[in-house]
Model the fold of this input.
Amino acid sequence: MTLLQETASTPSDVRDLPGPGGLPIVGNLHQIRFSRLHLDLEKWADRYGPLFRVRFGPSDVVVVSDRATIQRLLVQRPQAFRRTRRLESVAKEMRLRGVFAAEGDDWRRQRRIVAAALNRARIEDFFPHLVMTAERLRRRWQQAADRGDTVDLCSDLMRFTVDVTIGLAFGIDANTLETPGPVIQRHLDKVFPVLHRRVNAPFPYWRYLRMPSDRILDRALDSIEEEVNTMVRTAREHMATKPEPTNFVEAILAALEDEGSGFTDAEIFANAGTLLLAGEDTTANSTGWAVHYFMQYPEHFERARQEVDRIIAPAQAIETLEQTKQLPFIDAFNNEAMRLKPVAPLHVLEPVSDVELMGYHVPRGTTIMMLVRREATREEHFVDADRFDPERWLAKDKPSPHDPRAFLPFGAGPRLCPGRNIALTQIRTVLAMLVRNFDIRPVGTGVEERLAFTMFPANLRVRLVPRPPA
Ligand code: HEM
Done:
């Protein structure tokens, strides 16, 4: 048994943990809305404390919101903890058992190659593609502003992140920003909601009964597979003439040649698909949340604009990678948006063997949910924690007035997000382009947190108005 906290006495049984009362058979399922799962669990954590139990049907789920324990669990992967077996099997059924869903030696092998391929495709290499894509987004928004159209912000941002990620992954200019009609992004949109539903379902009904939504997913996966396979074929042909890799898939193909590492075609598809999914929603929704806060705090918007003007004027958008590194206020602002609205507000894993957790015996395979957002919004870690205050990230005080170990928007430990630098570069580039060129007006009210594997701002619609001349 792994000990996560020394205790003098015999560990208690998980069934003795506090938690909301439930019903026979369904447990607490009737009290949970899966599109708001993180909010329901955060509310219960306020009542039941840093370790409590809920029941998803017959299964116990242990919910942790203690910073030090969360850190330790994340760091002890993959030996002592793993992503859930349900996630792995659901991802496998969807042909997506890539680095995000793999475990043990499979994960180690894939992680090494994927992380190296993301490095190899270095941000400098793909930066011109990012600049070009940001310019297309600017033109799209300019046209919407000229027509006075309402902009569905996250949908536009997803076209942006898909274009950037396809460029990064395959060296292909997908240009979904300027292409009408069906685009790969519409197929990708189908995957996360179903993944979220299936991972949390008490019973794998879809293995016995195909609902219309399951058939829609099958068709979406077929289309993604077809598109990805075509892109992989193109990469192979390119490698035959120019062996030096120029993008993620080519870097994977090159690594396979070097190491004879036994990556199968299915794993190449799974990792290319994983990259598209992991890079799309997360980055688009994080940017969306930052824009939401720009509308809440005009004074911060103005300060961001002044910073960007200083760095890039008279240009309309960022032109060099160097400029993205000179935006401390935008970074502080975005950190604060990610602290309060992380797109991954809760992480899920399970112990590989029985463990003791804060004095409780947690059997192997028990689902453990970690409320990482809750920790980043607690007074003990961040002074005046509910206040949106970018300044806290700029303060030079020593010791720091807050505990950065409670801020985990990209995870922690060996499975820390390998795309974080790429993501942050995209976010800086888009936010700088936005504040430099447009004023933002909210359309309607009621922006809400919704969870569909990632947490996104539902109802985030805006009107963009060209910036008045100085
Ligand atoms: C703001 C944007 C993003 C956020 C907030 C984010 C967040 C995360 C988080 C929380 C994890 C889980 C980490 C853990 O288990 O400790 C993760 C994993 C991962 N992310 Fe990201 N991510 C973002 C963008 C990206 C991008 C742009 C890419 C690729 C281009 C990417 C690729 C991955 C991959 C491959 C994994 C799986 C790593 C593994 O299991 O070893 N992510 N990300």
User: Anything to note?
Assistant: The mean pLDDT is 90. The CA atoms of residues 111 and 132 lie 29 Å apart. The longest helix spans residues 265-296.
